[in-house]
């Protein structure tokens, strides 16, 4: 049996690599790559990856106010534990089972055991099933996917692990799309500050969902010569997968995209793609249902992956209204008011946030890629006293050992602006923000 399973695993890896990289294969998009197995995949196959990661910051404390804080703000500490500024960790480690039950039914299961926001529930390490869905392809033009699904959304949320180009996500993605879930059965108090946000302690924080939700999705893609159109629409549950949250809060999401394909296949095909997406949820808190809307637009361009002078360009804009959260300013509650050591959750429909990122990459050789990115996030511009603006320049290098295994290194120049003056506590934090160096290896098997 072990030998047979080994042959299945080897066969699946070969098929996946062929589907991703073959220059003669039919080009694929994210919906195809994540929704179904390659046509010739076996009944059962095993694959996975591991991502050892290094993070380095100065760990500057927020000081020089009356009374002094003398604590390191969370922005200068490494997630998900926020207790160190310099950390070597296994960010993601995933084992995946994938195959075809027949020519019309595919399945995909993935278990996450890395140290990240998905596996951290109420501050405790909690490995969980991160992917688990079945896709039915009986109806031409309509593929039906059910289970734990990566919801249609922004490009950075749709990408598979092998296509990440930076260790650290843009701030707008991290705060608007990777928000933590909160225990809806707990009682929360409102803070006596502008906007009267709810204060949420770490004990009631259920981690993130890694862009996944339980639900049902219909999707498909259509090729017309060099052109491809794709769509996906999903109805699901806005609840924590890792925490086993049985929330009944609804989630609706959709994305449409059009591509012009120059050649190649998989996530590294040469093409230009433009897309629109929309998400709407109704999370519950304190016995009340609130609206949470996210929407965005963007485009990507990729030509010549792992070829000298191969290049790529991406730009994306994200807008959010309603449910907006501001992560805790500090991890420690010692000598700090709750408003500084707990998440501030702004659920009202008048709240807003928006951000964008622009990035470019160039292969200097077949294996070495240089990258640059700028990301901008404006949180709560409707609330001048609580508005915060995050700006980050990222410079990075990647060494591609194989198309699915590489080493990344990047330096992030970060600033945090506080438009409203005076705000002594916020200004103390903004003046202490560190730059960050991060390295990561993506090792596939």
The CATH class turns out to be: Mainly Beta
Specify the number of helices: 6
Task: Report the average pLDDT across residues.
Answer: 88
CATH structural architecture: Beta Barrel
Helix and strand element order:
HHEEEEEEEHHEEEEEEEEEEHEEEEEHE
Main β-sheet description: 16 strands, antiparallel, barrel
What's the structural domain tally? 1
Q: What does the radius of gyration come to?
A: 22 Å
What would you call the structural class?
A: mainly beta
**Number of strand segments:** 23
Query: How much strand?
Result: over 45%
Anisotropy-based shape: globular
- Biggest sheet: strands side by side, in what order? 1-2-3-6-7-9-10-11-12-15-16-19-20-21-22-23
Helical coverage, percent range = 10-25%
Structure in words:
By secondary structure, the chain is mostly beta strands. The chain has a single domain (2-444), classed as Porin (Beta Barrel). Helices cover 11% and strands 47% of the residues. The protein has helices at 2-21, 30-35, 155-158, 171-177, 338-341, 424-432, and strands spanning 45-56, 86-102, 105-112, 120-121, 124-125, 128-139, 142-150, 198-200, 212-224, 227-237, 250-263, 270-281, 284-285, 288-289, 292-303, 311-322, 324-326, 343-346, 352-363, 368-379, 388-402, 405-417, 436-444. The strands form 4 sheets. It has a 16-stranded antiparallel beta barrel with strand order 1-2-3-6-7-9-10-11-12-15-16-19-20-21-22-23. Mean pLDDT is 88; it is low at 1-28.
